[in-house]
Design brief:
alpha+beta; 20 strands; 3 domains; five-stranded mixed beta sheet; 8 helices; 22% helix; Pseudouridine synthase; nine-stranded mixed beta sheet; 35% strand
């Protein structure tokens, strides 16, 4: 029996502009096929009814995916007033209606209530697990999953346009923010009902829509044997992590999984460059990217005068 092809040694990120109707999993599969990559993953789920930026990691770039989860995100959402659906978007069934249509000034007046750290109840139709099952599976089965409130960070809200039946807002937010919940809660604050009509993600950290690639554009590059023109460096998701250039002997040790000793002055400068950050409950404030001749070698932890490899890249 022939061995299964493992794919090409492709390592990097694709700033993918996901089209309407495509799931995040389908997007990863399509981009992986275009590049012939062995491994692939995405940097944050985007609903099928949403369009926009879905960063996709190929090859060893998948080892940097956890760092993109922490990245700030920007959305443009159109909220339809007067109707709330069970899914809180255009896909669901209408479960509540209202005749109230808020004015631009009315919307502007309540925006400060939703800026900063706020408590938010996720939609029942979401991928959150409850007793080991996805909330959307429970909801579709007719159950009534109890969603617990969570704290999320909204950095800014701006009104882009106001129509008779809807309003378009730009939302700058942190991880875990549900725009559908935001639409519902803003409608409640305005004395009406509301659901997401359209949603577009315009930015995830360093990945912005003005440098993104559509599916047609990537397929065109593949047809011209220029697919790598759509590939960003592996370190794109690590834009604010300190970088240390290592010599040949040091990079060999790191590749072998061995720690290297740093000169006290170099170690001190690295500590000064590190900033507080966490991935979930894990403190990664001391993480440093080691490079040799411009090539990423490993993500390392700087501690006790040493650099210890935590994620080694095979580039």
């Amino acid at each position: 029996m022939a061995r299964r092809r493992k794919g090409n040694p492709v390592h990097g990120w694709v700033n993918f502009d996901k089209p309407l109707g495509m799931t995040s999993t389908q997007a990863v599969g399509k981009v992986r096929w275009i590049f012939g990559a062995g491994k692939a993953g995405h940097g944050g789920t985007l609903d099928p009814l949403a369009t926009g930026i879905l960063p996709i990691a190929l090859g060893d770039a998948t080892k940097t995916m956890p760092y993109l989860v922490e990245a700030k995100k920007t959305y443009e959402v159109e909220i339809k007033w007067g109707e709330r659906t069970d899914t809180l978007d255009a896909e669901g069934e209408i479960i509540a209606v209202s005749d109230v249509r808020p004015s631009k000034q009315g919307i502007a007046d309540i925006l400060p209530e939703f800026i900063g750290e706020i408590s938010q109840i996720p939609p029942q139709y979401s991928a959150i697990k409850i007793d080991g099952k996805r909330a959307y599976d429970l909801a579709r089965a007719g159950d009534d999953p109890k969603m617990k409130p969570r704290l999320v960070q909204i950095d800014d809200l701006n009104i882009l346009a106001v129509h008779e039946m809807s309003a378009i807002l730009r939302v700058d937010c942190g991880k875990g923010t549900y725009i559908r919940s935001l639409a519902r809660d803003m409608a409640f604050a305005l004395g009406t009902e509301g659901s997401v009509k359209t949603l577009r993600r315009t930015g995830v950290g360093m990945f912005q829509q003005d440098t993104s690639f559509s599916l047609d554009a990537l397929e065109d590059l593949r047809h011209k044997a220029r697919a790598t023109d759509g590939l960003l460096p592996l370190a794109t998701a690590l834009d604010d992590i300190p970088v240390l250039a290592v010599n040949e002997n040091q990079q060999f040790s790191l590749k072998q999984g061995r720690a290297i000793v740093l000169h006290p002055s170099i170690f001190a400068s690295l500590k000064a460059a590190c900033r507080p950050r966490s991935l979930g409950d894990v403190d990664v404030s001391r993480i440093v990217l080691a490079k040799h001749e411009g090539v990423e070698i490993a993500l390392c932890e700087a501690r006790a005068g040493q650099l210890s490899p935590k994620r080694v890249f095979n580039l």
